[in-house]
Design a protein that fits this description.
Helix content of chain B: 40-55%
Strand order of the largest sheet of chain A: 6-7-15-14-9-8-13
CATH architecture of the largest domain in chain A: 3-Layer(aba) Sandwich
Number of domains of chain A: 4
Shape of chain B: elongated
Strand content of chain B: 15-25%
CATH superfamily of the largest domain in chain A: Sec1/Munc18 (SM) protein, domain 2
Oligomer: heterodimer
Number of helices of chain A: 25
Chain lengths: 602, 801
């Protein structure tokens, strides 16, 4: 298969270095609290931590018992408690309560909180307000980046999107900046930085300031370029159903931190199995980027090959048999196990996804992307809601409709919203409010209302409200220009042509040939042009905020590009970028805030 | 006390004295030769830059800054362009004027502050000469360009460039020029040969100094007094003409008898002096000229520069720092040999008193007889202020104190404040501080400015001591110094210990300002320029939260989008009620509505839930969001309905969505109630049909389903009927509905029940290629051989068309 060999592909940097750095620091921090201690870990840090330092290592450093932070009273007999948490107010509050409860009970313990990736003042304020500031010690574990795979790095910050884009809380920006800085200090400086989006700009600024402070290192750089992209530049892509194998696995079973838990129906046994999904898994690495219609055929071929390999042992003499058992059998067994898992997974995938429903869902999505038969689509969505097919899918379709159509007509918006609330309860009023704020699901403003709003805004104008005003304008300007963009960048290939999914022509294959992910297309264009020139119209439609900075004039042969999605990215985008990398004979490394399937975590 | 007068020199009626201020602490190799030197008035710092060596551009000269006593304050290599002139601003900033008209501003300790340009014209024609001057409006820069035009900025903090009119007949660089401040305007006085011109904004006016000696063919040097009131001109014939700067009056003219061009000339006149006097410096010679024909000559060992002061001239050489001034009146009266002035007698009286001699009484009596004792005390106090040596100061003050004992009703203020002032002056004159201020200068400069200067030099403890000692009000004194100190410390800490961004320092500084002034500053001014770190915004917000009253605090937040969003987030977890208040303040009814809806979900009790929802409804109405209001009202109705049913039928219903409620009702057979909901809540027909369909199929009540299908024309078509039967594995029932399905869906329906032939039939009839394709894919080649053939044929004909 084409995936197995990268033509003259540049070697990827060794990301295990990052893990080692993180591990060493963690151990150092744990040693700061000598003696036996119980460790409480934030739920979403469990899997990343497992990647960095497993239980054995923790035990070696006198961690007695491990607990998950559950925000409930604890049962622990240890006199030393260590908390490894994200800087969240809620968690800190819980710890304060715990300390106070111990105080009341007259129990003396030592407490240490390790915030990762950094501590926030607000958390310390909470400690102070709860009167336990003096009772606990705090520390920072600067664990910014987790390498998920040979070519994927992640910040593992699921709240990045919500905090930054919905709540307007920019505290993670510096975290992202620091992450870039870390990469740069470990792997050498980048020659060029591109980016688009407000957040990207801010991240770059914060990174640049770090650069200015720190000393310059002159080591052979391993990355050539870096591309920062805000998630809100392209909302369309994550709203589409994924059809590449890895994406589907994510849609169906949720890939968390590079691991997926396959249920009993897949494993054909009575318990679920956790599987690491990365390029170490030979089977997976070959099918992860494939359109799911190809996967099954590939797997059966693979099964046959495996059988032949097994069959080799017939007619072997003792010597050969010995060699076979010691060299190959283990590998084959391993492969066998993985193969059966993937076959199981793709079976359950086929079961679910070849059904009528899914086909129609895809069809509707494609019509929306192309802008055909919108009425039919609305009817379909209505039915979808009425039948309570899937809470998330319905919302996804609604958002896709809103974005591609520049907002819903008032009549449709109200009726669909009413239907949705009838189906799923009025708590989703809040969901709708949030989606509206994000610009994901909006009601078209009649011309009249807009003027009223503008005059209102006009009244507010004085120098103090400039900030507000710009925000207001940008939210007005946020009106997606998807249709125009799609035309300009040729995102939707001409319909009617046959698209052979076995031999992908362009990145559109990740959506069955119906749509090229906007984010990836942008990256391709910018890298091709080496800047934003010629894309002025596009950036204007995307609300500007683009930049390109040459950091270093040296041109070198390195072709590795780091793409950073601020606010998460989908597996489809990763597949598309892998495809692009293959075409362009370059290699893309993606760094993401968090893997998101659909970011409607409201 | 003869030694006091040892360094006095008479000139006309007055005496001049030269006092050594410091022996310079610096160690200069070539003294001041070939150096650009700038020394700030009022005992300010000295900047030194070795002249540019044009032969080797790579050699970078060192720019050095010293205190007046020659202690190094800063030193750094000069990396920018060729410097034409150095100068100091009134706030102790160093200005470096470059050849291209760019002016770089550094602080006293060598930190780069900013730069500005003197305009395109200057950068094109280059700087020929430049002068930095002080006016009531601040510090100004005047430039003579290569094109022989003057460009002038009166205040560098508010730059308005003015290009002055052309000087007629100017062929080369003028022989000399100076900046005047007159009538609230800065003017340039230019000498071209023997012609003098005054340039102001609009015109170039030729002027003639009254009574200038006719031998002169050219004016080679000129200088303006510290107050801009007087002007001195030096002609090529060696005459010094002194007069008022408006050129209306001549004060004197003296022949120096030296025709060589001088190196520097400066006014040396103390305020209220009777005699105009100027100092002219040549190589190795210094001349003081006054009204009379005589002059005082001093020999100079070393290259020196003159620094004009309010009450004299400072002379800085490579090794020494001296002050040349007219002996102040009080000193002259007291110390003049054989003086019988009351002050002198009092001093003598005190001396005798110390010696326990009865002569003390004689002297005292003499003063008292003329009833001049209070005058004598005043003289002594005043003279003490003008003396540089603490010992002399003490002697004079003791004498004054002694005299005071014999006076009733003598106001003590003068004496007390003089003692204090002197203590401060002696402290700042100290070698380590190096600000040689005279008492006159100190009074002119004011204590605030002195404190600022100490702060600029980072002499915080001294500044605080001075404030405390002089009892300056807290807000002007100690607090201000502490504030600067804290800002400085924070900056240093931030720089050194945390990887924080520079812009954050601004926030910290702001924070500190808030701390000390308790005034809400507009943070947003900064936000466009720097990205505030959230941590710092938090710091400020949290601090202000406790410091300001709530109203002010919210008002402040309104203008800070970043701070506001952070605070909201904090409130979400910590203080729900504050969040409500925040929305209230903004009249954000929409958000308030959402807030109540959210709150309602946290309540267990139904009454509380409904109460919250009612509040939400009110808010939504206020926000003119009828839709949300109506929906919420519906929800309240639904909740009441659910509870009623729960009580009657014992079915768990409260909290379900409308859809789920109906599903539950239908599944337990409460059709009537479901029907009621359908009507009450305007549930669309389609949804209701789906619901019924699902519920009936779920119960496998096929009979009822059939009845239902016939009750009305189905708004959702009949394909769902087919599908739902198939889903429950009842092909038999499914077939019943196939015939009812619309033509478009026929194929699907047939396929659903597994009737391939029927599907083929329908597809062929519809002549739809893709449908035929779908059917084909479902046929197996072996069993449906004939069918496949038929379909293929049909497909071919369709395709042909």
């Amino acid at each position: 298969m084409a995936h197995t060999e990268w033509r003259d592909a540049p070697e990827l940097p060794d990301f295990s270095l990052l893990k080692r750095l993180a591990r060493d620091q963690l151990i150092f921090l744990l040693e700061q609290l000598p003696g036996k201690k119980d460790l409480f870990i934030d739920a979403d840090l469990m899997s990343p931590l497992d990647r960095i330092a497993n239980v054995t290592i923790l035990k070696q450093h006198e961690v007695d018992k491990l607990y998950k932070v559950e925000l409930k009273p604890i049962v622990s007999s240890s006199d030393q408690l260590c908390f490894l948490i994200r800087p969240r107010i809620q968690t800190v509050k819980w710890i304060s309560d715990l300390v106070n409860a111990d105080k009341v009970a007259g129990r003396f313990r030592r407490y240490k909180i390790i915030f990762t990736p950094q501590k926030f003042y607000a958390c310390e304020t909470v400690l102070e307000e709860q009167g336990v500031y003096g009772d606990v010690t705090t520390d920072e574990w600067n664990f910014y980046i987790l390498p998920l795979d040979d070519d994927i790095l992640s910040l593992e910050l699921p709240e990045f999107f919500r905090d930054n884009f919905l709540e307007g809380d920019q505290r993670w920006v510096t975290t992202a900046g620091s992450a870039l800085h870390l990469l740069q200090s470990v792997y050498g400086s980048f020659s060029k930085v591109y980016g688009i989006g407000r957040c990207a700009k801010m991240v770059y600024e914060s990174w640049r300031e770090l650069m200015e402070e720190g000393e310059q290192r002159t080591r052979q750089p391993e990355f050539a370029k870096v591309f920062l992209v805000d998630r809100d530049v392209d909302f369309v892509t994550p709203l589409c159903s994924q059809v590449v194998y890895e994406g589907l696995v994510d849609d169906l079973f949720r890939i968390k931190c590079g691991t997926v838990e396959l249920g009993p129906d897949v494993t054909s046994s009575d318990k679920s199995i956790k599987v690491m999904l990365n390029s170490q898994d030979k089977v997976f690495s070959e099918i992860r980027n494939e359109h799911f219609s190809n996967v099954f055929g590939f797997l059966s071929q693979k099964a046959k090959n495996l059988q032949t390999a097994y069959d080799k042992r017939r007619g072997m003499d003792i010597q050969q048999m010995k060699a076979f058992v010691s060299d190959e059998l283990k590998g084959l067994k391993q492969e066998h196990r993985l193969l059966s898992l993937h076959i199981g997974a793709s079976e359950s995938m086929m079961k679910k996804k070849t059904k009528q429903d899914f086909q129609e869902l895809l069809k509707t999505e494609h019509s929306l992307l192309e802008g055909f038969e919108i009425r039919e689509c609305i009817t379909y969505i209505e039915e979808h809601i009425n039948r309570q097919v899937s809470m998330i899918d319905s919302l996804r379709l609604l958002c896709l409709l809103s974005i591609t159509e520049n907002g819903l007509l008032s009549k449709d918006y109200r009726s669909l919203k009413a239907q949705y609330l009838q189906s799923y309860g009025i708590k989703h009023l809040l969901t709708f409010a949030n989606l509206r704020q994000l610009g994901l699901l909006e009601e078209q403003q009649a011309g009249e209302t807009l003027t009223v709003m503008e005059s209102k805004v006009g009244k507010l104008v004085n120098d103090k409200t400039v900030g507000k005003l710009t925000d207001a304008f940008s939210s007005l300007a946020k009106k997606s220009n998807f249709r125009a963009l799609s035309k300009r960048l040729a995102l939707v290939p001409k319909s009617g042509e046959e698209y052979d999914l076995r031999v992908p022509r362009d990145m559109a294959y990740v959506f069955s040939g119906a749509y090229i992910p906007l984010s990836c297309k942008l990256i391709e264009q910018v890298l091709e042009r080496d800047g934003w020139t010629g894309l002025e119209e596009v950036t204007r439609m995307l609300n500007g905020q683009e930049f390109a900075v040459t950091a270093r004039n040296k041109t070198d042969a390195q072709r590795i590009v780091l793409v950073m999605f601020l606010g998460g990215c989908t597996f489809s985008e990763i597949s598309a970028l892998r495809f692009l990398g293959k075409e362009r004979d370059a290699y893309y490394v993606k760094q993401i805030e968090y893997m998101v399937n659909i970011k409607l975590s409201i | 006390m003869a030694f006091v007068t040892a360094n006095w020199n008479p000139l006309g009626d007055a005496f001049y004295r030269k006092i050594e201020l410091y022996e310079m602490g610096w160690n200069l190799k070539d003294g001041l030769r070939d150096c650009l030197v700038a020394a700030a008035p009022y005992g300010g710092p000295i900047a030194l830059l070795k002249a540019h060596n044009r032969c080797s551009p790579s050699a970078r000269p060192q720019l050095e800054i010293f205190s007046s006593s020659g202690l190094p304050l800063a030193s750094f290599p000069w990396k920018s362009g060729v410097v034409k002139q150095l100068g100091w601003t009134v706030s102790d900033d160093l200005l470096c004027v470059q050849e291209d008209g760019t002016v770089l501003v550094y602080d006293l300790l060598g930190g780069f502050k900013r730069h500005f340009s003197m305009g395109n014209e200057v950068s094109q024609s280059q700087v020929l000469e430049t002068k930095i001057f002080h006016s009531p409006y601040g510090t100004g820069v005047a430039i003579l360009t290569g094109a022989l035009r003057f460009t002038l900025a009166t205040n560098i903090d508010d730059i308005k460039l003015r290009r002055l009119p052309e000087v007629p007949g100017l062929q080369g660089a003028p022989s000399c020029w100076a900046v005047l401040t007159q009538d609230r305007q800065s003017k340039v006085l230019v000498a071209n040969g023997s012609h003098l011109f005054v340039l102001d904004n609009t015109a170039c006016t030729p002027v003639t100094p009254p009574g200038l000696s006719p031998q002169a063919s050219s004016i080679v040097h000129m200088c303006v007094s510290f107050s801009y009131k007087y002007l001195a001109l030096l002609t090529d014939s060696g005459h010094v003409w002194m007069g008022t700067s408006n050129l209306k009056e001549k004060l004197s003219e003296v022949d120096t008898k030296i025709k060589a061009p001088p190196k520097q000339m400066a006014w040396c006149r103390r305020p209220k002096s009777q005699q105009p006097s100027a100092v002219v410096m040549w190589d190795g010679l210094l001349l003081v000229v006054g009204e009379c024909k005589e002059t005082i000559q001093y020999h100079l060992d070393d290259d020196s520069i003159l620094v004009p002061e309010l009450d004299g001239v400072r002379i800085i050489s490579g090794t020494h720092h001296e002050l040349l001034q007219e002996v102040p009146g009080a000193c002259e009266e007291i110390f003049k040999i054989a003086s019988m002035a009351p002050g002198a007698l009092l001093l003598e009286a005190h001396k005798e008193y110390e010696k326990e001699s009865q002569k003390a009484d004689e002297y005292l009596r003499e003063i008292k007889e003329q009833s001049l004792l209070s005058e004598a005390v005043r003289q002594c106090v005043e003279a003490a202020g003008h003396e540089h040596e603490p010992e002399t100061q003490k002697t004079l003050l003791r004498a004054a104190s002694f005299g005071k004992c014999f006076l009733s009703n003598f106001p003590p203020e003068q004496f007390v404040s003089m003692c204090r002032d002197l203590r401060v002056l002696n402290a700042v004159r100290d070698y380590t501080v190096g600000i040689p201020l005279s008492h006159t200068q100190f009074k002119q400069m004011t204590i605030q400015v002195l404190i600022d200067r100490l702060v600029y030099r980072k002499l915080y403890p001294l500044a605080i001591e001075v404030c405390r000692y002089l009892k300056t009000p807290e807000y002007q004194g100690v607090s201000r110094v502490l504030k600067y100190w804290a800002c400085y410390k924070v900056c240093v800490c931030v720089y050194l210990f945390t990887p924080l961004l520079y812009s954050n320092i601004l926030y910290f500084v702001l924070f500190l300002q808030l701390l000390f002034n308790k005034v809400a500053l507009n943070l947003s001014k900064l936000t466009p320029y720097c990205m505030p770190s959230c941590m710092l915004v938090y710091t400020v917000v949290m601090y202000l939260k406790n410091e300001l009253n709530r109203g002010d605090f919210f008002m402040m937040l309104r203008n800070q989008p970043v701070a506001l969003s952070l605070y909201k987030q904090f409130c979400k977890h910590q203080e729900q009620d504050t969040l409500k208040d925040l929305f209230n303040q903004d009249d954000d009814h929409e958000e308030l509505g959402n807030f109540y809806v959210k709150a309602s979900y946290k309540e267990q009790r139904l009454e509380a839930r409904i109460a919250h929802l009612q509040s939400a409804v009110d808010e939504y109405y206020k926000a003119k969001n009828e839709f949300s209001a109506k929906t919420t009202e519906d929800e309240m109705r639904l909740l009441r309905f659910q509870r009623k049913l729960e009580e009657e039928k014992g079915e768990q219903l409260v909290g379900f969505s409308l859809h789920d409620t109906m599903t539950t009702l239908l599944s337990v057979g409460l059709h009537k109630h479901a029907e009621q909901l359908y009507k009450d809540f305007r549930v669309p027909d389609k949804r209701f049909w789906w619901l019924r369909l699902k519920a009936l199929a779920e119960k496998e009540d096929w009979e009822e389903l059939e009845k239902f299908s016939k009750s009305k024309k189905s708004p959702i078509g009949y394909l769902p009927f087919v599908e739902v039967c198939i889903k429950h594995h009842n092909k038999y029932e499914a077939r019943k509905y196939v015939s009812k399905v619309t033509l478009e869906q026929k194929v699907k329906a047939h396929l659903a029940v597994g009737d391939v032939e029927g599907a083929a039939e329908a597809a062929i009839e519809r002549r739809n290629e893709s449908e035929i394709g779908t059917v084909l894919s479902r046929c197996s080649a072996t069993t449906d051989h004939l069918l496949v053939e038929r379909l293929n044929r049909a497909k071919a004909t369709v395709a042909k068309k």
